[in-house]
Amino acid sequence: MLRKELPVWIGTIAGGIVVIDYFFNIPGLNTISREIVSWRIILAAFALALGIGNLTRIHMRRLRERRAYWPYSLILLVTIYGYLALGLIASANHPTYKFFWNNLYQPLSATWYSTTVFYMCSATWRAFRARTPQAAVLLISGIVVMLGSVGIGYAISPQIPKLSAWLIAIPNTSAMRGITIGGALGMIALSMRVILGLERGHLGGVGE
């Protein structure tokens, strides 16, 4: 019982203090609130350590059982712990540490991000099938924006880049702000449910 109720009470008290401090100026409460907020860095570090531990457990099992592509698991573990040891021993400002970051991680990251273009093109092709009026609007808008981003669009008509800029600045910005506001409202609602003890999904239970 304590294992289920204690985390709920911790979330309720900590969240309540931060919310109250935001709206009211109560002497002494601001210090407690800032201390609670600073603890998120410690919690993030523990979450990262938990993730590394779980990743190690999964790939060590793959190494022991010699599953498919097990050499990649070995490379992953050597890279994680080798780079971690280098950072702890030599610090993140060491030239060797920066060398691996600038010449290994960043090119690989850019390469991985570039490969997502093919998946985006595939998803765009499926989404742009004008089966409904809404899909037709999406298709036409997407074509205009893409043409406005390359030289061939201006060659076809000087108005295409202007229309592309308008689509990005007005309809796209409005839609993105609506999504942002909706996400913020959802985050507020979820936070209030956690503070009030109604949301227990993160504890392995079902919210009320």
Written overview of the protein:
The protein has helices spanning 2-23, 29-64, 70-90, 95-127, 133-148, 151-156, 159-195. It has 208 residues and is mainly α. It is extended.
Summarize it.
The protein is an all-alpha fold and 208 residues long. Helix content is 82%, strand content 0%.
Element pattern in H and E: HHHHHHH
Estimated helix fraction = over 70%
Tally of extended strands? Answer: 0
Average pLDDT rating: 84
The shape is: extended
Number of helices: 7
The low-pLDDT segments are: none
Strand content: under 5%
Kindly name the structural category: mainly alpha
CA radius of gyration: 25 Å
| Main sheet summary | none
Explain the layout of strands and helices.
Elements: H1 2-23, H2 29-64, H3 70-90, H4 95-127, H5 133-148, H6 151-156, H7 159-195
List keywords for this structure.
208 residues, mainly alpha, extended
